[in-house]
């Protein structure tokens, strides 16, 4: 959820916005909040990870019950737990010889999980599936009444697609946990296009539409303990299509990816945890100009009372301005602290992200704050 510098709401009462499919080709000047790599596609994929996990570069995502990447890990939630997070990004963008400094604040995740019987745990909540907030300016000219008239076009998209998940998980034995999930993709966005002529005797032209999205998906996963302190995880997910509606009319349908991934967790002692993970997503199904992506991450957590977390991640983005998939690389670190005898935890994280594509570079600092409540 975008704040535009204003307070939108408390992290324990996160509101939900959802997205737009509007493809444009920026040519001159950009001013936006979210990643420019999502402008020419469905949007920028979100991170399905808690602050704790993002502080390790995403490496612990398959093993963290409060990260909605994998359902089987929910089986290890010992008590009712709620988590929410906020993320503020400071973005420097270079494109076609122009540069811009951008800022955004979002609340990308809220989850609630807990056991309902000795062998069954449930989880529900939402996270960001696609970010789609940007503001593009282009310059052009046209002939009116025999005279060349220069103008400025502005196209604005404000919203995101949210992933609402309900997951069930069961620990079948000490060595095996399984889980399944159903996903609802929903939301809306405001898209505005306007043209201003340099000659102010011509009126400004403005068009605004409310665009709604819907879709669904299913997921399944397994968590296997191979030995004391050594676990592996595997997950898969299939989403149907993202349907776009303006009013009651369906204006577009885009196929969404099949995804699969896994991870390994090594805990040689109570105060040292090491993890790595990888994932593949078939984003090329979304249409021309989209790419299948691979991603990987590796991270560590040291200590328990006020742990030090570090990690790195790399991979590709599904949408970009060129003929090959853009790349990204992230370095992250963070810590956390429990309060009220473990009933509340505050996690802090910091990410440094670099994305590169054909003629487009982004460098982003992101500050992460997460709150976990265990009544």
Describe the SSE topology.
Elements: E1 29-30, E2 44-45, H1 51-54, E3 81-95, E4 98-117, E5 120-131, E6 134-144, E7 147-173, E8 176-197, E9 205-227, E10 230-239, E11 241-246, E12 249-255, E13 258-269, E14 272-281, E15 293-302, E16 308-316, E17 327-339, E18 344-357, E19 360-373
Antiparallel strand pairs: 1-6, 2-5, 3-4, 3-19, 4-5, 5-7, 6-7, 7-8, 8-9, 9-10, 9-11, 10-13, 11-12, 13-14, 14-15, 15-16, 16-17, 17-18, 18-19
User: What amount of the residues lies in strands?
Assistant: over 45%
Output the CATH class name. Answer: Mainly Beta
Number of self-contained structural domains: 1
Taken in chain order, the helices and strands follow as EEHEEEEEEEEEEEEEEEEE
Structural shape: elongated
**Distance from first to last alpha carbon:** 26 Å
How confident overall, as mean pLDDT?
88
What is the CATH superfamily label? Outer membrane protein transport protein (OMPP1/FadL/TodX)
CATH architecture: Beta Barrel
Overall radius of gyration: 22 Å
Strand elements, count: 19
Count of helical regions:
1
Strand order of the largest sheet: 3-4-5-7-8-9-10-13-14-15-16-17-18-19
> How is the main sheet built?
14 strands, antiparallel, barrel
Brief overview:
The protein has 375 residues and is mainly β. It has a single domain (29-373), classed as Outer membrane protein transport protein (OMPP1/FadL/TodX) (Porin, Beta Barrel).
Overview of the molecule:
This protein is mostly beta strands. It has a single domain, classed as Beta Barrel (Porin). Helices cover 1% and strands 64% of the residues. It has a 14-stranded antiparallel barrel with strand order 3-4-5-7-8-9-10-13-14-15-16-17-18-19. Strand 7 and strand 8 form a beta hairpin. It starts with 28 loop residues before the first strand and ends with a strand.
